[in-house]
Design brief:
Residues 1-35 form the signal peptide. This protein has 232 residues and is of the alpha+beta class. The chain contains five helices and eight strands; from the N terminus they run ββββαββαβααβα. The chain has helices at residues 104-109, 161-167, 177-191, 199-211, 221-224; strands at 46-51, 65-74, 80-83, 93-96, 118-123, 145-155, 174-176, 218-220. Helix 3 packs across helix 4. The radius of gyration is 19 Å and the shape is globular.
Length: 232
């Protein structure tokens, strides 16, 4: 079963984040868990709702693009191992839900969550980093994790059918460099964040490097790998 929530409640201050984790990227939280043993299947994520807004729409589902802040603690002693506010100038994290961009336990814990909702979740080792732990993230083997999460926004994910069609201006079922470039400009204008002038070109190049598998200069619907909005 999952570990016991520590008696001492972890600090909740927005700025109380360990500087030693300043460079710990979101991707590290997605390191695959390789838990073993017959008891793993019986372990579940424990969810405590700390705040539920009156208006709850839309609820998050697999494939949605979420914007959230979250702090991670070790259940064994309440020590903090991760804080999203130390990165990206304190901006909340953007990630796609249910596709492995974060650990399995967080993908589960943030399903059916409302914009503005706050949760405290307890994640067993089998849905986190398992028996091997994650030394770079200062997570020991067989560690039960606690996350305090505040969800800010739920949007249609970048891999949804709707998003693909929105980017595909000419309707030819493939995305050109020009189409994705225009999409990035629109997204940058929408969120209003200050970025270095080179950010656009770097992100565009990275998108094609990771998605244009046949090197033809286009990202097909298959390469785009549209996520289905089914449950885990």
């Amino acid at each position: 079963a999952a570990g016991t929530v520590p008696r001492r409640r972890p600090p909740r201050s927005d700025m109380d984040c360990g500087l030693s984790l300043l460079l710990l990227p979101l991707a590290l939280l997605a390191a695959p868990a390789r838990a073993e043993g017959s008891t793993a299947a019986a372990e579940e994520v424990q969810i405590e709702v700390l705040h539920l807004p009156e208006a709850c729409s839309p609820k998050s589902k697999k494939g949605d693009l979420l914007n959230a802040h979250y702090d991670g603690f070790l259940a064994s002693d309440g020590s903090k191992f991760y804080c999203s506010r130390t990165q990206n100038e304190g901006h909340p994290k953007w990630f796609v839900l249910g596709v492995g961009q974060v650990i399995k336990g967080l993908d589960i814990a943030m399903m059916n969550m409302c914009p503005g909702e706050k949760r405290k979740v307890t994640i067993p080792p089998s849905l986190a980093y398992g028996q091997q732990g994650y030394a770079q993230g200062k997570i020991p083997p067989n560690a039960t994790l606690i996350f305090e999460i505040e969800l800010y926004a739920v949007n249609k994910g970048p891999r949804s059918v709707e998003a693909f069609n929105q980017i595909d201006k000419d309707g030819d079922k493939k995305l050109s460099e020009l189409e994705i470039s225009q999409y990035l400009k629109e997204e940058f204008a929408r969120d209003g964040k200050k970025r270095h002038p080179s950010a656009h070109d770097e992100i565009l190049a990275d998108i094609f490097k990771k998605n244009d598998h046949d090197g033809d200069g286009f990202i097909s619907a298959k390469e785009y790998n549209v996520y289905q909005h089914d449950e885990l």
